[in-house]
UniProtKB/TrEMBL annotation, chain A:
Belongs to the binding-protein-dependent transport system permease family. Its main location: membrane. GO terms for cellular component: plasma membrane. It is found in: Cell membrane. This is Multiple sugar transport system permease protein.
Length: 275, 312
């Protein structure tokens, strides 16, 4: 390819990337404007002056937003821990042993991911109300884990398949039982996969909306995703405030993307390209 | 995406060269907790949902438990209602258009990003941001971008001379549907792109060289090599796009709440409103059970086709 054609590609690619960067930029830019400035016509492409008023008013001092962020952090962390605790042994077991029904189990974990969330959220609300678990962290963590676990097992299993069987055998010969061979030998070499699953589980719970909406009826238990949805009505046209909260909700995703992209995208796409 | 990797692996696992040995029962203990968890939190609720769909369950029954068995009355009521049929139609229009556009755009982006040029990796990362962004965030961004008076989209279209006054996208039925499709395609196209790109990179370069020597042009190489070689990946991507789009809830709920009127009320929104706004859990359950049939049937066809291809 001639270099002129390569540069033409770069130009087209830049336009394409702009379609994706501009909306995100616009969120950040709007959040940094003063309340009156967002209604300028034509709009100011760069906020001037830059103002952090929206963050001060709608994030740092808004009780609902702070509580939503705290709720989502608790739910996200608990979901991650529970998902890992269940997914690591399961993925190892499905990779290491020639169990009966391996394909059946794998199919179960796959098909479950295709089910619309509302199909489970509706009956789960009824079940949890009988158990008095609506508006509890327990209910939300169980729900989020039901979404994260099938994905976690399918992502993790290939990592355990890559662990040479001989290494685990050697540990067994040296006196490890099944469990300690798993914990001491297999887990340490699959850390990249575990990080991927941890990040994906946390971010999944952080942004989850359907279960969060269905399983919380009290304001103080709402995760940030539901709080944010409520703000767009409560704040009306205060778009700088809405965008400030949106930016804060997006922050963990951007951080993960910046620092852990190798794990998040790399991990998932490496699997896809091998298929 | 994991479906894509998983399904191939599932097939591969069946022909694994490792010899089958006696497996100690304790090995099942590794898998058991996760399987039981999925059974309790997904399969049990699904079964419970079917039970609900045969009962008359309102707010009182939710609190006190129970609910009279009414047979197929909820189904008859749901299927006979214009609201349900309307939601089904909107769901299908929304899903088919979104999937078609997301697949087309994703394929174009994948073919484009498969070329070598400066800045390629950076651009690929930029596209992926949309895919990892929580839908609560992207739906809000689009609501603001599409604002009738101050929205950036109207400003841009006005600047290009395409419109002469503000379009109130989310207020008119047709433009509202177009708007939620736009937001969906924006999110789903990079997802299709990353899977298709992986598929493209698996096509041997020698095929293209041979075609070039034989005098095949770029279009011919695309139709005679790229598309046939990509067929299995295409099928997977289309299925994944369909299943994911069909179950969309957040994007539409946040952008339009199913409105204006019921212009964007897709089935999941309809079922949600039935249950959580009108407290008709029985009919809501019937609606979701019918809704589940569509992705389920598609998956069955898909796995059948896949098996056929693997045997061929």
């Amino acid at each position: 390819m001639t270099s002129r054609r390569a540069w033409l590609s770069t130009a087209i690619g830049t336009l394409l990337a702009a379609l994706y960067v501009v909306p995100v930029y616009w969120m950040v830019a709007t959040s940094l404007k003063r309340p009156g400035d967002i209604f300028a016509s034509p709009p100011d492409l760069v906020p001037s002056p830059v103002s952090f008023a929206a963050y001060a008013d709608s994030v740092l001092t808004h009780a609902g937003v702070l509580r939503g962020l705290a709720n989502s952090t608790v739910i996200g962390l608990a979901t991650t821990v529970l998902t890992l605790a269940l997914a690591m042994p399961a993925a190892y077991g499905l990779a290491r042993f020639r169990l009966r029904f391996v394909n059946g189990f794998l199919l179960l974990f796959l098909v479950v991911q295709m089910i619309p969330a509302i199909n489970v959220a509706l009956p789960m609300f009824v079940i949890l109300s009988h158990l008095d678990l609506v508006n509890t962290y327990t209910g939300l963590v169980l729900a989020n884990c039901s979404l994260a676990l099938p994905l976690a097992v399918t992502v993790l299993r290939p990592y355990f398949l890559a662990v040479p069987g001989e290494v685990v055998e050697a540990a067994r010969v040296d006196g490890c039982n099944q469990w300690s061979a798993f914990v001491r030998i297999a887990l340490p070499v699959t850390v990249p996969g575990i990080v991927t699953v941890a990040v994906v589980s946390f971010l999944g719970a952080w942004g989850e909306f359907v279960f969060a909406l269905a399983l919380t009826t009290k304001d103080e238990m709402q995760p940030i995703s539901v709080v944010l949805a409520g703000l767009t009505n409560a704040f009306g046209t205060r778009w700088n405030d809405v965008m400030a909260v949106s930016a804060v909700v997006a922050l963990p995703i951007f951080l993960a993307f910046l620092f852990l992209q190798r794990f998040v995208v790399g991990g998932l796409t490496a699997g896809a390209s091998k298929s | 995406m994991t479906l894509l990797l998983g399904k191939r692996r599932a097939v591969v696992a069946g022909v694994s060269p490792r010899p089958r040995r006696r497996v100690p029962l304790s090995a099942y203990l590794f898998v058991l907790p996760a399987v039981l968890f999925v059974a309790a939190t997904v399969l049990y609720p699904l079964a419970y949902n079917i039970d609900l769909s045969f009962r008359d369950v309102g707010l009182r029954e939710i609190v006190a438990g129970g609910g009279d068995f009414v047979g197929l009355r909820n189904y008859a009521a749901e299927l006979g209602r214009p609201e349900f049929r309307h939601a089904l139609a909107v769901s299908l229009i929304y899903t088919v258009l979104s999937v078609g556009l997301a697949f087309g755009c994703g394929l174009a982006m994948a073919v484009f990003l498969n070329r070598r040029f400066p800045g390629r990796n950076l651009m690929r990362s930029a596209l992926l941001v949309a895919w990892v962004l929580p839908t609560v965030v992207s739906a809000n961004i689009w609501r603001w971008m599409l604002d009738g008076t101050y929205g950036l989209v109207n400003t841009a279209l006005g600047g290009l001379g395409l419109i002469d006054r503000g379009v109130f996208w989310l207020v008119e039925p047709v433009t509202a549907l177009a708007a939620v499709i736009l937001a969906t395609v924006w999110t789903m196209a990079p997802f299709a792109m990353i899977l298709l790109l992986a598929g493209l990179q698996n096509i041997p370069a020698t095929l293209y060289e041979a075609a070039r020597i034989d005098g095949a042009g770029a279009l011919r190489r695309f139709t005679s090599i790229t598309m046939p070689m990509l067929r299995p990946v295409n099928m997977t991507v289309l299925l994944l796009l369909f299943v994911t789009t069909f179950k969309t809830f957040d994007t539409i709920y946040l952008m339009t709440r199913g409105g204006p009127g019921d212009a964007t009320t897709i089935l999941p929104i309809h079922a949600y409103l039935e249950a959580f706004q009108f407290f008709r859990f029985g009919t809501g359950a019937a609606a979701t059970t019918v809704m589940l049939l569509i992705p389920l049937l598609l998956s069955v066809f898909y796995f059948r086709a896949l098996r056929k291809e693997d045997l061929a």
